[in-house]
Amino acid sequence: METQRRFRLRPVVIASAVACLIALAAAWHFTARTSPAAGPPLEIRWHGNGIVLQGAVRDVATQRALAEGAAARLGGEADQVVDWLDIVPSALPVANASALAELIGLGQEGWHLQRRPKDGWLAVQSLSDERSVRARALLRAAFGPEVSMELVALP
Fold first, then answer.
1. Coil, strand, or helix at residue 58?
2. Which of 102, 113, 129, 142 has its CA 20 to 30 A from that of 43?
3. String of DSSP letters for 83-103
4. What is the pTM of this model?
5. CA angle 70, 102, 81 (to 5 degrees)
6. pLDDT band at 9 (very low <50, low <70, confident <90, very high)
7. Model confidence over 22-81: pLDDT tens digits?
8. Residue 34: its pLDDT value, please?
9. Residue 149 pLDDT
10. Same domain, 53 and 91
């Protein structure tokens, strides 16, 4: 009798599990398509004696300004710049690409910038040194007043 009950419950359990997976997949798909942050965020990392530029920018001029700023920071060593910046017209806006390029030049080993649609952060070694104060001003200029950019301390 116990064996019969197990066999009757298995199809119900399997059907429920499959229904849950389908619902989760549909929810993920819907969220990914309708989210304002559906594209990759803009991310910059200073590490390993190099700079990684990753995400999406709206135009070639911004992409070029950031890559040139990174190469200048590294003394013209363009091979130390890893550029995974896709050009996507709907990418998050950069209000002032030259200010962001200057920030790239100011950055130090370990810094990490991440920009999302309405906010972002820059992880730095010190929140109060002269370099970080300058970085805060460049962040405001680079992304404009409508984007909340915070400095956070590296662990």
1. coil
2. 129
3. EEEEE-TTSPP-S-HHHHHHH
4. 0.73
5. 5
6. low
7. 444 434 443 333 344 445 689 999 988 899 999 999 999 999 999 999 999 999 888 899
8. 36
9. 95
10. yes
Instruction: Check whether residue 52 and residue 27 sit in a common domain.
Output: no
Do 88 and 50 belong together in one domain? yes
Distance CA 75, CA 66 (A): 14
Helices (H), the chain: 2-34, 60-73, 97-106, 130-143
Please check whether residues 98 and 130 belong to one and the same domain: yes
Report the domain count for the chain: 2
Three-class DSSP category at 12: helix
Q: Write the CB contacts of 85 (distance below 8 Å, at least 6 apart in sequence).
A: 42, 53, 54, 55, 56, 57, 63, 66, 67
Residues 140 and 77 in one domain: yes
Of residues 89, 90, 87, the one with CA closest to residue 60: 87
Domain extent, residue 13, equals 1-34
| DSSP secondary structure letter of residue 25 | H
**142 and 79 within one domain:** yes
- Do residues 15 and 79 share a domain? no
Amino acid (1-letter code) at residue 1: M
Task: Return the SS3 of 141.
Answer: helix
